[in-house]
Amino acid sequence: MNSVAADIINWATFAEARSVLGEAFVRVLGYFREDGTKSVAAIEEAMRQKDAAALVMPAHTLKGEALQFGADSLGDLAEEIEFAARHYVEIRQGPEELLEKVVQLRPLFEATLVALETEISPLVERRAAFGSRTIGQVNYSRARA
Questions:
Q1: CA-based angle 10:12:13, to the nearest 5?
Q2: What is the residue-level pLDDT of the chain in tens, covering all 145 positions?
Q3: Going from the N-terminus, what domains does the chain have, and what CATH number goes with each?
């Protein structure tokens, strides 16, 4: 796990979700990828249209899905967008002040997916909890020989 992944993912929440979902975890993570991609696109389009009301639901959806996997940074950013958009709707103001946060959303979503999918990949080197014995490590240098 790299330092970026450690900063954007709450690995305890991730592990709990993985344990609770069991065999369905990979499938549900796939739904997160699909739904999250749609939510990010909808948020970007709402921003282009300067439509605060259209920001609310996709940001809310992204927030909930992100937080269930421990993607706290993404969930927090989506929550900021959601709450600010709700405020702009109430005061009847465009969401232009959210542009910086919306611009940060796609790169963070993509980094989050990389971190989550790297963690579940069977090709990722795993270290045992105690000692340095490697579990499930693929050694390509020996495989070529």
A1: 70
A2: 566 677 899 999 999 999 999 999 999 999 999 999 999 999 999 999 999 999 999 999 999 999 999 999 999 999 999 999 999 999 999 999 999 999 999 999 999 999 999 998 876 554 444 444 444 444 333 343 3
A3: 3-144 (1.20.120.160)
Q: Ramachandran region of residue 53, left (φ > 0), alpha (ψ -120 to 50) or beta?
A: alpha
One-character DSSP codes across 113-143: HHHHHHHH-TTS-EE-SSSS-EES---HHHH
The residue to which tokens 């809310």 are assigned:
60
- pTM (two decimals): 0.81
Burial classification of residue 12, based on how many CB atoms lie within 10 Å of its CB (0-12 exposed, 13-18 middle, 19 or more buried):
exposed
Cβ-based neighbour number of residue 90 at 10 Å:
9
DSSP character string of 36-88: HHHHHHHHHHHHHTT-HHHHHHHHHHHHHHHHHTT-HHHHHHHHHHHHHHHHH
- Which residue, among 125, 17, 124, has the nearest Cα to 9 in the 3D structure? 17
